[in-house]
Design brief:
Elements lengths: L5 E7 L1 H5 L8 H9 L8 E5 L5 E2 L7 E2 L6 E2 L2 H15 L4 H11 L3 E7 L10 E2 L5 H5 L27 H16 L5 E5 L12 H26 L4 E7 L2 H6 L4 H6 L5 E5 L10 H10 L5 E6 L8 H14 L3 E4 L13 H7 L5 H4 L4 E5 L20 E3 L5 E7 L3 H6 L3 E11 L6 E6 L2 E2 L5 E5 L12 E7 L11 E11 L8 E12 L22
Parallel strand pairs: 1-2, 1-12, 2-6, 3-4, 5-7, 6-8, 8-9, 9-10, 10-11, 11-12
Antiparallel strand pairs: 13-22, 14-22, 15-21, 16-20, 16-22, 17-18, 17-21, 19-20
Length: about 525
């Protein structure tokens, strides 16, 4: 860990491991998720141990993946179960191997437990990720909640953690992961598949979830004493106090009562690359406590570029985060295995002072895969927004960099504001304001994305570019900036509304005054370089 800033990296026994390889897997394939991220500044591996109800290790108290398969209808998940069985038949417990290997490589390892428990009716044919426990207890399902509109996208077949037997089922697995393995604690995922109780149960059972976490914290302390190894309780949550409270997750008490050692705050209601207010709220909560706060970044969506992630990282540190978690690290376009560019993105995450001098993008807009529109945690995304003629829309965008300061010392190469308007036609008209000042039309470059043959999204409209570096007064403020768009005229024949999709600020730097950019070259006559 560098200057108390911790870098976590989520990997798992599934997508980049047991799903990919033909069984039987050897030790080299089992430990590959550890070895492939060595020497990148990562401190802790968060290792997903299964799909909650079924597990990918030699569990004695839970249910092993594929243990109850009769007829399979999913070739990938079926093969995963066969592969696990082959390992166990050879006396290889993959989790034990991974934990020991991580420690040999100088890394901490936290088993990561996804908490969704979904009931599936009995059937000879399954997808191979069905547990007997969940099948046997339809009476513990939350069910539909028509009186709660916010529950429209919840899984009605999930089991409620208000039921003591459901909690004890997961407690037994957590106890095993803490006591039977030389792990460094446990990470519990309260973000994916939330809420874990019914909406109607929130008032009565918020304290139930808090008391359950107290029980897990006590188990961590007991296992720590038994093994002489620190056992942290890490909770992954959406980055919103109010949104967690709506789900029955009293994060405020979890921190103030010293229950959780680390909070991992995941993007909710907006991207950290342009919106850090809710993360700042959590940082204020953890300040002065023993609880550390990490910012969680996804990389599956095409919009999650290296430059956008750098914007998110510096914004997170500026808001008060103590570190970064990368989860689902499968960046476009190659996804996996990783390329040299993918590895480069992971470097320097613990050093905001270094990243302050690196190109980045600050962005507000929807996520292709990171934030499902249905799961909002009571929050409303700033964008996308429909635009109506004569009704301006204003968006706030946070910028952690001191861009004006970089300009003063001659290290600012470029700074551009970009606004994407979907379904905007060539004869439509719009007015733009930047930090309260109207942008003259002659300073705006209008780019036609109505139809292009090159690879692009399904957006069809115009993107508007403004060179903010051309005028020192127009440079982004360090802090919160505002962009306002007003539609002045719209094609009356086109039935689709104009939508403001996203806005970003791309900032590029020089390594020093008058220095060369990496992509600059001179091809004229020159003396050869002699070291």
């Amino acid at each position: 860990m560098s200057r108390r800033r911790e870098i976590m990296f989520q990997t798992d026994a599934r997508h980049s491991s047991i799903y990919m390889y033909e069984p039987p897997m050897g030790i080299r394939q089992i430990v590959e998720p550890i070895d492939e991220v060595l020497d990148l500044g990562i401190d802790t591996i968060n290792y997903v141990v299964g799909d909650c109800a079924i597990l990918l290790y030699d569990t004695k108290v839970g249910e092993k993946w594929g243990h109850n398969v009769d007829l399979a209808n999913h070739e990938v998940w079926h093969r995963a179960g066969l592969s696990l069985k082959m390992m166990l038949d050879q006396g290889i417990d993959p989790l034990e191997v991974v934990v020991d290997h991580a420690h040999e490589r100088g890394l901490n390892l936290l088993p990561h437990l996804i908490l969704n428990m979904l009931h599936t009716p009995p059937n000879r044919e399954t997808n191979c990720r069905v547990s007997d426990f969940c099948t046997r207890h339809p009476e513990w399902q939350v069910g539909d909640e028509p009186d709660y509109p916010e529950a429209a996208h919840d899984a009605p077949n999930r089991l409620s953690f208000a039921v003591p037997e459901v909690r004890e089922n997961r407690t037994a697995v957590i106890r095993e992961l803490l006591f039977d393995y030389e792990s460094d604690g446990i990470e519990m995922n309260f973000r994916e598949s939330a809420p874990f109780i019914a909406r109607r149960e929130v008032e009565e059972h918020t304290d139930t979830l808090t008391d359950w976490l107290r029980e897990i914290k006590l188990l961590c302390a007991q296992a720590e004493k038994a093994q002489g190894r620190r056992k942290r309780l890490v909770a992954r949550v959406p980055a919103t106090l109010s949104g967690n409270a709506l789900m029955g997750q009293d994060v405020k008490s979890w921190v103030e009562d010293g229950i959780v050692d680390t909070l991992v705050a995941m993007q909710a209601g907006g991207d950290f690359a342009g919106e850090s207010g809710r993360l700042r709220e959590l940082a204020e909560l953890t300040a002065g406590t023993e609880t550390t706060l990490l910012c969680g970044l996804d990389s599956v969506g095409g919009e999650q570029t290296a430059e956008v992630h750098r914007g998110a990282v510096v914004n997170a540190y500026d808001a008060g985060a103590d570190g970064i978690l990368y989860w689902r690290y499968y960046p476009a376009p190659h996804r996996y295995p990783y390329t040299p560019e993918d590895y480069m993105r992971l470097r320097y995450l613990a050093y905001p002072d270094y990243l302050a001098h690196v190109d980045k993008v600050f962005r507000v807009g929807p996520s292709e895969r990171d934030r499902a529109p249905a799961v909002t945690f009571g929050l409303e995304e700033q964008l996308p927004r429909e635009l109506a003629v004569g009704e301006p829309v204003e968006v706030a965008i946070d910028v952690a960099d001191d861009i004006a300061g970089k300009r003063e010392i001659g290290e600012l190469w470029g700074c551009e504001l970009r606004v994407m308007l979907h379904e905007f036609q060539h004869h439509d008209e719009a007015r733009f304001h930047w930090n309260g000042t109207e942008i003259p039309a002659e300073r705006i470059r209008k780019v036609d994305w109505i139809f292009q043959m090159r690879p692009s999204t399904l957006l069809r409209g115009y993107r508007f570019h403004v060179n903010l570096a051309a005028d020192a007064l127009a440079l982004p403020l360090k802090g919160t900036n505002s962009v306002r768009v007003e539609l002045l005229k719209k094609d009356a024949q086109l039935v689709h509304p104009v939508q403001w999709i996203d806005v970003d600020i791309a900032v590029d730097y020089l390594p020093a005054r008058n220095a060369l950019r990496l992509d600059e070259a001179y091809n004229g006559p020159a003396r050869p370089f002699i070291p």
